[in-house]
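User: Round two. Same drill as before: sequence, then structure, for each protein.

Assistant: Same drill it is. First protein:
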Amino acid sequence: MKKVLVICGPTATGKTKLAIYLIKALSLGEKDLLGEIVSVDSRQVCQKMDIGTGKDLPLGAKFTYPEDSLKKKKIGCYQISGVKIWGYDLVSPKEDFSVATYLKKATPIVRNILSRDKMPVLVGGSGLYLKSLVDGIPNVLVPRDNNLRRWLSDLSVGELFEKLAQLDSKKAASLNLSDRKNPRRLIRAIEVAQWRARNLGKKVSLVLPWDKESDFLFIGLMAPLPVLKNRIKKRVIGRLRVGFKKEVLELLRDGIDWSFHSMDTLGYKNIKNYLLGKINKKEMIEDWVGDEFAYARRQMTWFKKDKRIIWFDISNEDWLKEVEKTVKNWYYS
């Protein structure tokens, strides 16, 4: 039976640090680590965007291609404390990236890890990416239609919903109030509906790397909201101290301007008005912390729906011991 460990939860809870600790705690020695990390983070896929996305790479960390089958696909990894971390630097910041692109990159990574009798440790806070990789999501591989998106971008939310209702009344009726007011989700739903109409009978599917024998354990990290907000603030200040501003300026010098989708990422979009002189540093920090905290709350809302997750409060004194005990009991069972 092949074991798969999942560590998820909101930002700033120490998921990657925990993953490294657990891999070492389960292994017999540093030279024979039993697991490798696969990042499940929609922000960490971009090259040259290290500090702002929280990759926390040690000084001098090198991106290498240790597996020939993945090197052909231009997929490599970093090592932190001896543990391989895959899923970083999958694309240029100038490229558009989606769940479908992530799946196409992450699936061969997981297969490669399993083929070497190692345990994949899926780590991240991007709920949709995690669900797509673990469970699969219908229509995730339906391609983007940029011409359609540009046309739809001029429509109001009401007009978008009406358009969807005409194309797929069942899908429109199934949307909750929040989704009905979300232009991005409405546009994607219309995109899928139109693709289906043009491709009657055609299916798009991706074979996931798991089989019936795969044994998953889901660990979730959380904290009371005041604790979480304080951790987010410390993290934001820390990223600024270690050179986040310099990282953004280098991206801009490399031609990656504010129009690219990657630059709409948390942190990068928050520093924009500061660099343009429209707000001061204190205002920028408050704006960034506020957006990260709002994102963390959305992450919790998403993950709370998954009843497979065993939650641990990182503000409790013995949380790490309890996590280690839970993981070891599962792994050696």
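Second protein:
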Amino acid sequence: MDRIHYEELRRSLPGETAVRALVLAAGFGTRLVPLTLFRAKPAIPFLERPLIQYSLEMLRRAGIVDVVVNLHHLPETVRQAVGNAFPGVRYSFEPEILGTGGAMVKVREFLRDDHFVLCNGKIYFEENLAAVLSFHRESGALATLVLVPSDQNPGFNPVFVSPDREVRGFGPGYLPRAGDAPYVFTGVHVLSPEVLDRIPDGPSDSVRDLYIPLIREGKRVNGFVSQAYWCEASTPSRYLEKSFEVLRRRGRADNVIASQSSKLHPTAVVRESIIWDQVTIGERANLNRVIAVGNITVPAGAQFGDAVMTPLPDAPSRDFGGVLQSKGGRLHGD
């Protein structure tokens, strides 16, 4: 961020809370294609709101309202997802995607006054960040990574932590020492401002270019182990699974998650599916475990299962001929 841009940003923020935050929303979301061809991953609807709003709400509950969101892929969809619900939010557009480290460097003058939070904008997390901030300040660590138990979140690269909560290493390339335990990184960090001058200019990665060098130098990087519920939706199947998992956690047994702007015919049968906005589902249509991206029409009698349905780019119509599906579907009677 250039100095003029920074000064304009700083004057526009209320300055009521010392702790500030950078929310990461620039990524391409390649594993969530085709959904991310239409919206950036943080703008994907998760139950009743876009994913990024959960991160912003988590920050706000901890009293953090001075927030910058970085942008690159489909930036306007992120701006629309934030909307007017979080008026203190400003943006840092990256013409070249900078990674987690480079994103901090671009706004470091905004972040350097106090400890700050770096938070992924594509997660759902029920943690109380006030407790994390207290833990970080009291520990004297340069960085604190918020972790969750690996046995409850299989399939992620581990972060190895010592019995006294010191991060020792990352991923399968690290050879654990006696007492090290594996955890899963949530995408939430708390950092001391001293780290900002250690990150190289240009694109960089916080683990490779900051945390691993700090650990090698004997500097303390802590792990805060959270028992709160956490999930992320990195693939279409995981997005479907976790959406209904959170719905069940809320005590709801709904079989369909549908936008209020969509229209489902009374005779349509829809099971374990997510229907975005402006979707019309015709009579006798049958959908099972389907994600229907906005602005499509599923005609009468169509049958789809285990499919992602999206508009075709530049399609001349919104009917069945203008729908791309990841797996086969058919019209009734075909």
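The first helix runs from residue 3 to 12.

User: Perfect.
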